[in-house]
Amino acid sequence: VNGAGTSLTGTTPAGTAGNATVAVTTPGGTTNVPGGYTYALPAPTATFLFPNTGTAAGGDSFTIGGTNLTGASVTFNGVAATSIVVNGGGTSLTGTTPAGTPGNAPVIITTPTGTTTVPGGY
After folding, report:
1. Contact 80/98 with Cβ under 8 angstroms?
2. How many Cβ atoms are within 10 Å of 80's Cβ, its own excluded?
3. Is 85 left (phi over 0), alpha (psi -120 to 50) or beta?
């Protein structure tokens, strides 16, 4: 608490995603902070892409493993993959590659909580 008693600093405990009530208690009583505090989901991570090569014509099935993949879209060299399905735990997704040019293509995953690049590309 600052010297004037008008602000305080604290550390949040672990919580689940979403809004949480913040209550401040003093000898004079308890009040809730307007708006509370919002716990955000962590950004996605990608740990593998299988297979990591395919045809330039596209249409190849792929799987990406990671964390926090719920709501993901995937691009290969900036072109959207199709038929994206994320498992219930948000730890893997499957989809179909778009057509592309021969050579390594960066693979980018975008979710409501952030973006990540798949190591090694495709």
Report:
1. yes
2. 12
3. beta
Backbone angles phi, psi at 58, to 5 degrees: 80, -170
Other CB atoms within 10 A of residue 59 CB: 11
CA dihedral 112, 116, 121, 122 (to 10 degrees): -10
Neighbours of 92 (CB within 10 A): 17
Q: In Å, what is the CA distance from 40 to each residue of 16, 69, 71, 114? A: 8, 14, 14, 11
Helix (H, G, I), strand (E, B) or coil at 61: strand
Instruction: Give me 17's structure tokens.
Output: 């995603």
CA dist list (Å): 95 to 41, 48, 78, 110: 23, 14, 15, 14
* pTM score: 0.74
pLDDT tens per residue across span 25-74: 999 999 999 999 999 889 999 999 999 999 999 999 999 999 999 999 99
Amino acid letter for position 70: T
Q: In 3-state terms, what secondary structure has residue 102?
A: coil
